[in-house]
Amino acid sequence: MSAPLQVYEPFRAGLPPLGRYWKSLWARRTFISQYSKSELREQHFDSVFGQLWLVLNPLLLSAVYFLLIVIIGGSSDSTRYGHLTASLFLFYLVSNSLTGGVKSVTAGQRLILNTAFPRIMLPISATIIALFKFLPTLFVFLVMRTIIGLPFGWEMLWAIPVFFIALLFSLGVAITISCVNVYFRDIASFLPYMTRTLLYLSPILYEASSLSPKLRALEVFNPLFPILDSWSQAVVHSQVPSTASLLQGLAWALGIFFIGTYFFLSREREFAVRL
Amino acid sequence: MPSVSNAPLATNEVAVSVRNLGLTYTTAIDRRPTLKARLKSFGGKQTRTIRALDEVNLDVEYGQVLGVIGTNGAGKSSLMRVIAGILPPSQGRVEVYGSVSTLLALGVGFNPAMSGRDNVFLGGLAAGMSREQIEEHFEEIADFSELGEAIDSPMRTYSSGMYARLAFSVAATVRPDILIVDEALSTGDAKFKEKSFNRIKELRSDDRALILVSHAMGTLREVCNDVAWLHKGKLIQRGEPNTVIDAYQEFLHVGKSAAVDEDL
What we know:
Chain A: Its main location: membrane. Chain A is mainly α.
């Protein structure tokens, strides 16, 4: 018998066989790249102006905040502007991943009801799309920091591990929220408020070091705090980020990723019923 | 593993084996599950349990063309989804030998904002085909669907007939070992109906199993060599098409009329 045998039996709560799951996910990796490509094309990000908009959008946003802080607030520090822009760009990686991820499963309804495939592909694609939107902004930031004369140094390489922590975190939140949205469809409407709150609670409009120690004690509850702080240390100040921040960020990212993935995998077999 | 394989399979070999299959699910009374609704109904349980399939035993062999009939809500689509691996069974066991291609009620086109071409590729990739395999079949799919230039327009601009045509073309072109078609036979205009009907006839072969869910009794009488009748999740009768369909129509008290034979 050369034909592949597939057996379907009732599942007990918990994870599907991970080895087989991973294999079938890996076999479909082209789906993820194709999906991201089609999605970006559909949002016109394959054209010059589309790409430009990708950069322009966060740049305009940072200009708005620049106005708020530097002009109205009366501080004229180029480092401050660099920090604001760099942090905002990374924040958008996370927030795009969240907003893209939240409806990834519910929007994939037709596909889920028609085909058997590892459902986790959908939130993963959402994060990849957010990543593709992030990459050009990184380039813009590099040009900008040269213009405003921020120091360059090898310490900037610390941005690489920080970036991967941020990416893992984005993936974790995308997986988690896409799963939650299947059960509570109104989460998507709360999301703008959640991201907005996260934006103000994170060291973006201000620097982590400028917070009073009392407030800083609360930072342990904000997963983005250590990640954004390390990011700013590395790419703006060209300093080695504190180990505590790095580890804290990593712990958050790993925690959210594993908990979210566990929930997703143990729930995804009933998505077809819930949609 | 839905992929295209042309492994020679002898007739009378089992393609799908369904044993004591049961499927239950709880659905919320609310159409859309929301946090708000959950909070409002805190404490009170607002769900009801549906027994979609009950002790179903069914074997499909290669070379068979099985028609599945039954009233709305009989569990036909649920059974197809379990065989396709989309819904996990609650009891029992399903074994599937070979690659499965599904054309369930919804068909392709999961992202209406994307073009037909993108949707065909995404659907195929999700089903586990490689990009090369899809490219190889794409021309044929596009030709068969007769969509012409429309294949590159967003699917939201398609009419429901165009949707159905594309979906049918995809499922019928990849030549799987096992093809499941759920109520998608009688879509499109008369010309396309005829065409898809002929395609189904072409697809009948000793090394393929076809499962067709349909209300078009005339079509089933003509193409199937076996019919299963489901009612309220239970398998009522299985056997020679004319016998089972006659019994089913007797049961429906509709008798044999042109309207029933054609499309219900």
